[in-house]
Amino acid sequence: MGGILTDLFRYFEAYSLPLNLLILLYIMSGRSSHLFVVLLLLFFLGGSVSCHAPRYADHAPTLFFPSLDGLDLPSVSAFNFYIPEPEWKQIDLTPRKRITLDFTYYDTHHVRSQDCLLFCNSDTEIIDLAFLSENDYAFPLPGAKVISPYAGKRSSHSGVDLKTCAHDTIVAAFDGVVRMAQPYAAYGNVVVVRHYNGLETVYSHNSKNLVKSGDVVKAGYPVALTGRTGRATTEHLHFETRINGQHFNPSLVFDFTTKTLQPQNLLCIKKGSSIVVKAVDPFPFHLVFR
């Protein structure tokens, strides 16, 4: 009996069973070894106690993973993954202003015409020329030479005279809408284009106008042919640049030697009924936000 009790004590200790339960079963059996064994078997078979894993395990549990040797697994390169290209949107960085495109009768019949949307909130307008690309402008008469420069306000010559040959093609300097296209006093056949950047350009003495009022033109689009209509002594182009109806020196816009656009901005300041136009370097905020 002593050997049995010793084994039971070890068993109870190994499986974390309370020793007082063992003593209680021994007392209930009346110290009879056979009855004690019977009660002990009934106790376990009845499921009253759930046994736990031994505290004194010989080793930690081992995890077994199936072997992948011999399996024909596809490589990553075998899969044709489709990665769509990002949709790039072309951003138009061409400077544009709010301009009036619903022309009145006066707008379509007079060279000097004001735009009510310019200088409406401020006495200053900035014409941004420094960031225009080569596709955003065109020299009005390619290959021409200057035969008469701009003379300013004190003279009647309000533009630059350019000459190549008779009936040569005159093109729009910038994108815009034709405001006027008809004969007009000493100008002869004249075309006036209102541009989205706020400027207007004038092309006069034309032998023939190729556009009409309301036509949308791009930079480099043919608008007229050179001639000597109006007050002119030879076939040429009289070219003007204007802001809100007032003419200013076209040399602030084009370099007539290299026939390229001036890489600068135009600062236009309204003083009473006149407008002062000055060439300035790009402002710092233009460089940051462009």
Structure description:
The chain is of the alpha+beta class and 290 residues long. The protein folds into 2 domains: 2-45, no CATH class; 105-289, Glucose Permease (Domain IIA) (Distorted Sandwich), CATH 2.70.70. It has helices spanning 2-14, 19-28, 33-45, 105-109, 284-289; strands at 124-128, 145-148, 160-163, 169-171, 176-183, 189-195, 199-206, 208-209, 216-217, 222-225, 237-243, 246-248, 254-255, 260-261, 265-271, 274-280. Strands 2, 3, 5, 6, 7, 9, 11 and 12 form an 8-stranded antiparallel beta sheet that branches. It has a 3-stranded antiparallel beta sheet with strand order 1-15-16, with no helix packed on it. A hairpin with a 5-residue loop joins strand 5 (176-183) and strand 6. Helix 2 crosses helix 3 (33-45).
Could you name the key traits of this structure?
290 residues, alpha+beta, single chain, Glucose Permease (Domain IIA), 3-stranded antiparallel β-sheet, elongated, disordered C terminus
Unreliable stretches: 46-54, 89-93, 286-290
Mean pLDDT figure: 80
The name CATH uses for the topology of the largest domain is Glucose Permease (Domain IIA)
Number of helices: 5
First-to-last CA distance: 100 Å
CATH architectural group of the largest domain: Distorted Sandwich
Radius of gyration from CA coordinates: 48 Å
In percent, how much strand structure appears in the residues?
A: 25-35%
**CATH homologous superfamily descriptor of the largest domain:** Glucose Permease (Domain IIA)
Helicity, as a percent range = 10-25%
Biggest beta sheet summary? 8 strands, antiparallel
Number of strands: 16
What does the overall shape look like?
Answer: elongated
H/E order of the elements?
A: HHHHEEEEEEEEEEEEEEEEH
The top level CATH class name of the largest domain: Mainly Beta
Oligomeric state of the chains in view? single chain
Q: How many domains, as an integer?
A: 2
